[in-house]
Amino acid sequence: MRRAAAIKTKERDGRRAGRRNLVDVVGQQLRQEILGGALKLGEKLPSESGLTERYKVSRTVIREAIASMRADGLVEVRHGVGVFVRNARPFPPTGLLETDPGRISSIIEMLELRAAVETEAAGLAAARRSPAQDEAIIERFEDVDRAMERRIATSEADFEFHLAIADATNNPRFREFLELTGRKIIPRSFLLDQPDETASADYLAQIQAEHRRIAEAISDRDEHGAREAMRLHLKGSQQRYRNLIRKGS
Asked: What positions does the domain HTH gntR-type occupy (predicted)?
């Protein structure tokens, strides 16, 4: 039984890795068309079915490639209309709402703002998420697990988890807010993701336990539970950041 389960898990991870490679290939080719000028500012991309036919990949691959370009600020999705070129170059990865890592108060301010926005996002995601969006949230959660197992920085995977929740609200403004704040909204990216720093297993396990409660509540369509799980997660982040800074002082 355990061996069969392990084989299934390995096969599933292999399929996901293969799909991720296809997403990277498709995304890179579309980026080259935009950055090279083949696709102009404001121009509509081919339809999802058209891109599926062109690249001989699944709709899921196309959607993830588009989502990646959207995160970089290259395209915008107009629901019911299509995908349009938004910019000729990616937005700067630091985002527009800058945070000063040297000021504890700056980090806390951002976490408070995130709590106000993302608590509601979690509730809306629980109410509105599609099966594909539910799967995307779970996959991003598992990406954090894999980063932990490999003992590499987890902040990037953590950010993608929160983006997947934002997408599941089916309100593009939530993703836009996170994109504006940038990946540095994950506090430990300032402190723990440098080569000479190592996050404790207990620290990351606690964060993942909180992520799991959020993901499960959204999957169960429990709006109240999702909001409360997100609120507690971000409140806990505030306290953890204070504690980490104190230990380093």
From this structure: 20-88
Sign of the alpha-carbon torsion through 143, 134, 175, 89: positive
Bridge partners (DSSP) listed for residue 68: none
**Hey, which residues does 76 pair with through a beta bridge?**
84
Neighbours of 247 (CB within 10 A): 8
Rounded distance between C-alpha atoms, residue 58 and residue 42, angstroms: 26
- 185-237 pLDDT, tens digit per residue, is 565 544 444 433 345 788 889 999 999 999 999 999 999 999 999 999 998 87
DSSP per-residue letters across 203-235? HHHHHHHHHHHHHHHHHTT-HHHHHHHHHHHHH
Q: Which two tokens stand for residue 188?
A: 């430990």
Do the domain assignments include residue 96? no
pTM, two decimals, is 0.58
Q: What confidence tens digit (pLDDT) does each residue in 18-40 have?
A: 556 788 888 888 888 887 778 88
Give the DSSP letter string of 35-75: HTTSS-TTPBPPPHHHHHHHHT--HHHHHHHHHHHHHTTSE
Domain total of the chain: 2
C-alpha closest to that of 244 among 208, 183, 200, 179: 200
CA distance 136 to 145: 14
